[in-house]
Amino acid sequence: MTSWIGDRALIASAERALDPGHPVAAIALMTPHGGAEALRGAAPENDFEIGSISKAITGMLYRASIERGRVEPTTTLGALLPLADHGAVETITLESLATHHSGLPRLAPGMQPWRRTWRLWTRGENPYGETLDQLLEQTRGIALGPPRARYSNLGFQLLGHAVAAAESMSYRDLLTATLGPGFATPHHADELRPTSLLGASRRGRPRAAWVGEAIAPAGGIRATIGTMRDLLHRILDGTAPGLSALDAHTPYSPGVRIGAGWITLGRPGREITWHNGGTGGFRSYIGVDRTAGFGVVVLSARDRSVDRAGFALLREHAPER
Question: Quick one: 297 exposed, middle or buried, by C-beta within 10 A (0-12, 13-18, 19+)?
Fold first, then answer.
């Protein structure tokens, strides 16, 4: 097993929190006194797939666009994307997408999700890869369910591309313009950086990179641990664009509330706002205790959950109040 490198105190915490089933991993910690990183089997320049943490970032892009006056919570998809004659999907509001209350299914039925999942598990293939035009075609005639909490990758795909359209740019360009060049959204495998990591299944089998224009806002962002640490820093010092995405005002499940993508749970004096991510070969976690000023990111190039490690690191380093 490769040894950890980085901050000694964080390495000690990482060894307690993260099991040996993550041979390629990186952790960032932010406190009121500064930040630290620890890496195992990876270098600072390596970027990871962050999976559905992309949704939390898309929520911030959406709220930043509201702050700039480009969109409103009641703006509909049909006002921003070419969805004429697509049915009820064009009436969906951006805010309902951001809180998973749009009535959309998890995935578009037209993408044949069961077949793609089979190919992922048996061949390690990327189950995504659509262009934006293909995604929009898959939404034609989708029947909406009731407006209750229902996690939807499709919803965040549409949200991100709709906000980008309101800003007259692509999602990729909106991401860079809002949060800087540290994040990447490759549309094809040949766009991966030379330092991009490739992930592995729980048993260590290679997995293809999850790339594609359509999936970017919901699960297609890549980042280094340094980029994620910088994001933590900006969230905790209040300078991040679209910070209101973390303000959880909408009930999501018992004891859980949602902002724009970001989930908040806990009790007064110990509320954690967080999101996790998983792709074919990666798992990720980001969590912040905004009141105490602490945050943690855990990235792994192995399809094994890191949620428990993320929460454990926050409990260890953020004081109870």
Answer: buried
279 within 8 A of 292, measured Cβ to Cβ: no
224: CATH: 3.40.710.10
Residue 65 lies in a domain: yes
**In DSSP terms, which residues pair with 269 in a beta bridge?**
none
Domains contained in the chain, number:
1
| Dihedral sign from CA coordinates of 39, 45, 46, 49 | positive
Residues 6+ apart with CB under 8 A from 124: 201, 205, 206, 207, 208, 280, 281
Q: How many CB atoms lie within 10 A of CB 4?
A: 20
CA 108 to chain centre: 19
Give the DSSP H or E segment for 230: helix 225-236
Query: Residue 80: how many CB atoms within 10 A of its CB?
Result: 21
Is 280 within the bounds of a domain?
A: no
| Residue whose structure tokens are 């932010």 | 30
Tell me the whole-structure pTM to 2 decimals.
0.95
Mean pLDDT, the chain cut into blocks of 10 residues (321 residues total) = 91 95 97 96 98 98 98 98 94 98 90 72 81 94 92 97 98 97 96 97 94 97 98 97 97 94 86 96 97 96 97 88 64
Count of residues making up the chain: 321
